Give the backbone structure.
Amino acid sequence: MAITEIQEKGAALAANGAASEIMTVLEVANALRCSKAHVHNLIGGRVRGLSPLPAIRLGRCSRVRKEALQEWLEQNES
């Protein structure tokens, strides 16, 4: 796939609002009011008493779907 094709598909997703449904680790940390390191621990399942936060891995980067974050918050409310 050529770079121009990828850019066009990315632009189409952004125009449809699909790109805004995926959050970076920093955006998740801001939403949860915690550190990026804590979000990485949540994704890795290293926080006792909480289920792992579902994430999409892109190489070394993680992304979280906004819907998945909302569902995870509802499941882990006490």
Notes: The mean pLDDT is 87. The chain is about 50% helix and 15% strand. Residues 50 and 78 are 10 Å apart (CA to CA).
